[in-house]
Write a structure and sequence with these properties.
- Two copies of one chain form a homodimer.
- Chain A is of the alpha/beta class.
- The first copy, chain A, has helices at about 10-20, 25-30, 40-50, 55-65, 80-90, 110-120, 135-145, 165-180, 195-200, 205-215, 235-245, 260-270, 290, 305-320, and strands spanning about 70-75, 100-105, 125-130, 150, 160-165, 185-190, 225-230, 250-255, 280-285, 300, 330, 335.
- Chain A has three domains: about 10-55, lambda repressor-like DNA-binding domains (434 Repressor (Amino-terminal Domain), Orthogonal Bundle); about 70-165 and about 305-330, Rossmann fold, CATH 3.40.50.2300; about 165-300, Rossmann fold (3-Layer(aba) Sandwich), CATH 3.40.50.
- Chain A is built from 14 helices and twelve strands.
- In chain A, helix 5 (about 80-90) links the parallel strand 1 and strand 2.
- The first copy, chain A, is elongated.
- At the A-B interface, helix 4, helix 5, strand 2, helix 6 and helix 12 of A face helix 4, helix 5, strand 2, helix 6 and helix 12 of B.
- Chains A, B: Keywords: DNA-binding, Transcription, Transcription regulation.
- Chains A, B: One of its GO terms (molecular function) is DNA-binding transcription factor activity.
- Chains A, B: It holds the Pfam family Peripla_BP_3.
- Chains A, B: This is LacI family transcriptional regulator.
């Protein structure tokens, strides 16, 4: 069956006539180019709305712009990512750019490659890669094809911009809080990492490093106890089971992400261990689930909304000027203390 | 700055030569057309993998296929939607189709229209609309442009397929469980709905209707008590606050979705009401958060994974044959009882 003929599309010429401006002016406004005055933008925007004009993305794709931002999310279940996404879409609201999400694969470099290739292939104007695990050279390959902002991952590249949280400080905030409550046996659940690039750049690796440094700074180097699983609820569950099986149990667990802490709370409840009476638990990301009454999880707030807004700023900037030097934005986290942390049992 | 020239792309001709088959055969396999034998598929797939061939989506877009499935999710925070998505992507794994997600707007028809138009504009081969709130005529307009499966929403249309849960039965399971525990004052928090089409078709409206019918069937028509908010955590919080302010409080709250129940648990914890001692709480969707130790929420399982798999089957089928009659798949829910429901206080 052939597609039925669609009604005639409103074109850029119709918009220009309606707004009583030149097609070049309409085009400038659509491209968000410099040299379009606010008054001109307002006129063109009004005509676009009144006529219901939609730029044809396929046709634009052949010319080089689709007004689409591809966002690779490694795990749609991690409740931190919607925070970033909210900040991003809010900052893009008054632009012609539309966000489409590509679900990556949790800890699966092949799945990540597939979805990023698919997004490049579909003509995204820019890409946002959230906590990508691909090699540095692969990220640079992507960034050479299309303006790219890498979120969460540290490290400097001339090819792409980064927005990340100061994860060393975030980990130190958790350890400092637990130490001030009187804890010494503080364990950490990390997301396993062996690749040297990723050990230097991934937020999970840097949180684990921050945990070690903070333990040492507090004279607790001998108490360092790290369990390696994954940043998932299952990873937290498995990690807590290992820690609860220790002959000397920790009195506090610092989970590297809220989603991990949720798994810890699950395992701990099953084992009949009371939180925070027998065991304190802290997470990282300050997600809405952490704030939830029955959960009430102490967690590090890395300002996901702000991360998303900074990401939008950088990518619009990079679309306008692909030759500008790459930028690294580092945001400072804060600690939100809730009911899951308290002094250790005496 | 011009984009650097990319290395020469692997073409369909290279694949055909490598697999020692005709380009027509390769094309058939890529289109998932009938008449390509399993042996032929295997040969071509192997050549594609060995050469790292990627069909060029932009070029295909102009010819009519981009091998992209657009999924509109109304709310990326609702923990039920990843379940559907998992089932969908798993069922598409061995096909050339890539899923891209368009974040809709929670209860915002304009945002929903914007994202669906954007996805059509970008040449999606098929669309999946999860619990869309748009008018029937708008959904049919979308389905006339591109093969469409509507998920969650009931109602029959010749233009699109639907996959939904039997929400009447789901609501009856919750009420029956609470009645069998001894509850009579069972309240319900619904997602507000006034549009007549949506009252007849949206899962939230049908759950509310199922609640009313089940209460009547149990001789509890006089106890029907519905609070209208939204299917969000905030909606659950606000709804519970209203119910807790009643002179005669309910002894059980049936929240129309797990995300709503989470807000209920939050408000209830703040008010110092104990669950399930003073108040039973049940949700709908059986999300991973419901299963979480500290939450342990009684909930209706509507088999999101199965919904996603059925959706994939229907859309592949519809891409192959756009003229086939539309299909309606209705799945049966089950109840998972956990710690948030118990007999009422005596």
């Amino acid at each position: 069956m052939e597609k039925p003929t669609p009604p005639r599309r409103v074109t850029i010429v119709d918009v220009a006539q309606h707004a009583q401006v030149s097609t070049t002016a309409v085009s400038k406004v659509l491209r968000n180019a410099y040299g379009a005055s606010p008054a001109m933008r307002a006129k063109v925007q009004q005509a676009i709305e009144e006529l219901g004009y939609r730029p044809n993305a396929s046709a634009r794709g052949m010319r080089g712009q689709t007004y689409t931002i591809g966002v690779m999310l490694p795990d749609i279940r991690n409740p931190f990512f919607p925070e970033i996404l909210d900040g991003l879409t809010e900052a893009l609201r008054d632009t012609p750019y539309q966000v489409l999400l590509g679900p990556g694969g949790c800890n699966d470099a092949q799945a990540e490659a597939r979805v990023t290739e698919a997004m490049i292939d579909r003509g995204m104007d820019a890409m946002v890669l959230v906590a990508p695990i691909s090699s540095r050279s692969r990220l640079e390959h992507i960034a050479r094809s299309v303006p790219t902002v890498v979120v969460g991952r540290h490290g400097h590249s001339d090819a792409y911009d980064t927005v990340s949280d100061d994860d060393l400080t975030g980990a130190a905030l958790v350890v400092g809080h637990l130490v001030s409550l009187g804890h010494r046996r503080i364990a950490h659940i990390e997301h396993a990492e062996t690749d040297p690039d990723r050990l230097a750049e991934m937020p999970n690796a840097i949180r684990a490093e921050g945990y070690k440094r903070a333990m040492q700074a507090h004279g607790l180097g001998d108490e360092i106890d790290i369990v390696s699983t994954t940043y998932t609820q299952e990873g937290g569950y498995a990690g807590a089971q290992q820690l609860l099986a220790r002959s000397q149990r920790p009195t506090a667990i610092f989970a590297g992400a809220d989603v991990v802490a949720l798994g810890v709370l699950e395992a701990v409840a099953e084992a009949g261990v009371s939180v925070p009476g027998d065991l304190s638990v802290a997470g990282y990301d300050n997600t809405t689930v952490a704030a939830l009454g029955p959960v009430s999880l102490t967690s590090v707030d890395q300002a996901g909304h702000h991360i998303g807004a900074e990401t939008a700023r950088l990518l619009l900037d990079r679309i306008r000027d692909r030759e500008r030097p790459s930028a690294q934005v580092r945001l400072s986290p804060t600690l939100v203390t809730r009911r899951t942390t308290a002094p250790p049992p005496s």
